[in-house]
Amino acid sequence: MRPGKNRDGYFSLADIEEQAIAACTTVSERWPEYDHVFVYDNATTHHKQSAGALSARAMPKSISGTRQGGKKNKNPDPNFLVPVNKRNTDGTLMYDIHGTLLKENIQMTGASFADGTVQELYFPSNASKHAGKFKGMELLLEERREKGDLGNISADVLKKKNTECKSFKCADPHSTSCCMRRMLFNQPDFSAVKSCLEDTCAKHKCTVLFLPKFHCELNPIEMVWGYAKWIYWLNPESSREDALERNTLDTLEQVLLESMRRFV
Ligand SMILES: [Zn+2]
C-alpha cells in the first residue's frame, strides 16, 4: 500500500473490517477446532461503533417531521436516519464502477428496555400518525419512564429536561440525568454497544481483545515487525521499487512461526 491522498488513500475502518473478515474466515476454515482471538491496539478507529448502531449522540429531541423550520427553512425536519456503507450478503463492502463506497440511509436499531424487550425507535410504517418517523429522545425516554427504567422521575420533570447540556459537556461528569441526551447515553443498552470490529469478528465467530490504552508495544506483532526489519537491513540497498517490495515480502516470510509464538 502506498498511503496518501492521491495514492492508495489511507487505511480506514472499512479496510480494517475487510481485513478482519478475511482473517476470521481464514482461521475458522483452517483451524475450526480452535477458538480464535485477535489482539488489537487501543486506537480510535478500532473502537469505532458501526454506523446504524444505537447512539444518543445525534438524536433529535422531538418526533421527526414535527419541528417546523424557521423563517429561512420552511420545510419540517427530515426523518432521523443514519448513513451506512452498503454491503454484499457476505459482509464485504459495495463500490460503484468508479470505486467509490456505496452508502445508504437506514433506521437506527438495537434499543431495548431494561426487561430485555425491544424498544422501537420509529413509528410503524403503517401508523396513522408519524408513519416510519423517528420517535425522538423525549418520547423514547417517556416510554422508558412508563416501564420504570428511569427510577422515580415524574413525567413533568422529564418533559422539562434540556435536550442536552451545552455541547454535551455536562457539568457533573457523574450525573445520569442532567439532560435528555445524558439520560439515554447512560441507559444500559446504549452503553453496551460494541465496536464495529468486535461485531464484525463476533459474526465470524472470533473474539477481539483490545490492549490497554497507549500500550501498543505489548502487541506481539510489534516484535515480528522488529525481527523482520532486522533481517531486511541485511539486504543490499536498492532504489528499485520492485526489489524493495520483494525484499519486504521475503523478509516477512523469514520470521519463523516458532519465534512469533515466543513473542506471544
Ligand atoms: Zn447533561
From TrEMBL:
InterPro entries the UniProt entry points to: RNaseH_sf
Region listing for Disordered, in residue ranges: 51-85
Molecular function terms from GO: nucleic acid binding
Xref: PANTHER family: CXC1-LIKE CYSTEINE CLUSTER ASSOCIATED WITH KDZ TRANSPOSASES DOMAIN-CONTAINING PROTEIN, EXPRESSED PROTEIN
Organism of provenance: Mycena venus
Domain of life according to the entry: Eukaryota
Name the record gives this protein: Tc1-like transposase DDE domain-containing protein
Signal sequence annotation: none
